[in-house]
Design goal:
- The chain is mainly alpha-helical.
- The chain starts with a helix and ends in a 7-residue tail after the last helix.
- Helices cover 63% and strands 2% of the residues.
- It has a domain of 192 residues.
- It has 22 helices and four strands.
Length: 505
């Protein structure tokens, strides 16, 4: 009787139109959770019962299960019993949702992908089943039942939630910014993980997923584990996670405060403890969209997030890995509320690097973007400390830093702000301009400095001459001080040579 049933089972696999698109590759590794063999055996039991219950005839199809365990045998359970379920095209519409649930249970079975020669048939069956489930999820009509949502989240959780094996990160940072170029180790399980992520993305985005019911399963625990996966070293996985998190934030409004708070905690741990995390840029991309949607006036909670979280993110040495996304978030705050410009500029000055030239160039780039959205009243509050910092950058011996600081005068909005406040700004930066014009080693910096000096002279010749006279007086005083210091040292050297004691005023 059993042989007759097997002979009638159609062995068809639905052909997929192709795999979901890939982004750039990187290395990641996974560790099997404890009890994997027990879970495999249990899931195989479900798979076998599912196959025959779908094919049963009559009103009690769900209750008719195969009881004969002798079919499974005692050796290689997965190979003996992990067989493909019928295609959705081969069952009536009334049975499709039941078949979908059983396919989800079937996909909960885990395989060892570290051995490419092991369970090849079963792995391909699972992959095809995942692709069929994604296709069904996309074309399904009618709200998903609570049972479907529960099994969908269970299947996703069993596949993607795992512990990462920490990779050695020594010698990966060069000058605190650039990563060494190295060939990434491809995750052998990605062909399955990718389809699971595509399934989760479409499940969350589907209009048939009711958020009122779905929030019971896509809960705080699920979201927290999802955020933990952002530390994956595989950029393809982080790209999917970024999109999925954004969809969850948009669909499940009840989770929004929890998501923001949890991301805050990741940032705090990164900035003040480890300075090691692979997903900071992806988190910031999600936050950029969230900040863009903040209602006006901004809540105090969001302003505290700016001051306590975003601005301190300028501190880590690996700023270059996520600076573009961070700069976008900062600029969004200025565009939302121009009064925050003073706080942001002072924060940038606080974390401005002293010995890291490449990081200082990034700061100057961001500073120009912030100044471009800054209004005159806020500019006047912070212009004194700001141009003291710019003056130090102008005198940098690293030509890219000095050149980038001089490029600020190419921005029309910044130039207008400087024009309006030239009586305060020019006396601060004039010494730096004069020193560059006299003896900066780089010709490009020298030429740009002369252009800025000409700009101020044409703008206000009287002020320029006054600053020049003051600089000459200060320079004479400095020369006199230097001579007196040298004379004093010579006297001390003579006294030391004669072994005499003398009181130096």
């Amino acid at each position: 009787m059993i042989n007759k049933i097997f002979s009638k089972i159609p062995r068809k696999h639905s052909k997929s139109g192709g795999e979901p698109s890939l982004s750039s590759s990187s290395s990641t590794s996974s560790k099997k959770s404890e009890g994997g063999n027990k879970r495999l055996s249990s899931a195989v039991d479900d798979v076998i019962t599912a196959q025959f219950s779908v094919l049963s005839v009559g009103n009690n199809a769900e209750d008719r299960f195969l009881r004969d365990r002798n079919l499974r045998g005692d050796v290689n359970i997965a190979s003996a019993s992990y067989e493909a379920l019928p295609s959705f095209r081969d069952v009536p519409n009334s049975e499709k949702q039941l078949l979908f649930i059983r396919k989800l249970k079937m996909c909960c079975v885990e395989f060892d992908f570290t051995d490419p020669t092991k369970n090849l048939k079963e792995k391909e069956i699972k992959r095809q089943t995942l692709l069929e489930s994604v296709e069904y999820l996309t074309s399904a009509s009618g709200k998903f039942s609570e049972n479907v949502m529960q099994e969908a989240v269970k299947m996703v959780s069993s596949n993607i939630f795992r512990e990462f094996t920490p990779q050695p990160r020594e010698n990966k940072l060069v000058d605190g910014v650039d990563l060494e170029e190295e060939e990434p180790a491809m995750d052998p399980a990605w062909s399955h993980l990718q389809v699971v992520y595509e399934f989760l993305l479409r499940f969350v985005a589907s209009p048939e997923t009711d958020p009122k019911i779905g929030k019971r399963y896509v809960d705080h625990s699920f979201v927290l584990k999802l955020l933990g996966l952002f530390d994956s070293e595989d950029p393809r996985e982080r790209e999917y996670l970024k999109t999925i998190l954004h969809r969850i934030y948009g669909k499940f409004m009840v989770h929004r405060p929890f998501i923001r708070k949890s991301i805050n905690n990741v940032f705090y741990h990164f900035v003040f403890e480890t300075e090691k995390h692979n997903g900071i840029s992806e988190f910031l991309e999600v936050l950029g969209s969230i900040i863009n949607g903040f209602a006006l006036p901004l809540k105090e909670e969001h302003k505290l997030f700016l001051v306590r979280t975003l601005i301190p993110l300028h501190k880590p040495k690996c700023l270059g890995m996520y600076h573009q996304q961070l700069s976008y978030c900062i600029t969004q705050f200025v565009e939302k509320d121009c009064k925050l410009a003073d706080i942001i500029i002072r924060g940038l000055i606080k974390y401005c690097p002293v010995t890291n030239s490449s990081k200082e160039v990034l700061f100057l780039n961001e500073l120009e973007e912030v100044l471009d959205a800054t209004q005159a009243p806020e500019f006047q509050r912070c212009m004194v400390p700001l141009f003291h910092q710019i003056s130090r950058s102008l005198n940098s011996l690293h030509f890219q830093v000095a050149e980038r600081a001089l490029f600020l005068w190419n921005n029309d909005h910044v130039e207008n702000l400087i024009k309006q406040n030239r009586k305060v700004i020019l006396p601060i930066i004039f010494p730096a301009l004069e020193k560059n014009a006299r003896h900066h080693w780089n010709q490009a910096v020298h030429s740009l400095t002369l252009n800025v000096r000409k700009f101020f002279y044409d703008l206000d010749a009287e002020l320029f001459k006054a600053c020049q006279n003051k600089f000459q007086v200060d320079e004479a005083k400095e020369d006199d001080m230097r001579e007196r210091r040298e004379t004093t040292w010579k006297r001390l050297e003579q006294v030391a040579a004669n072994n005499e004691a003398i009181l130096v005023p």
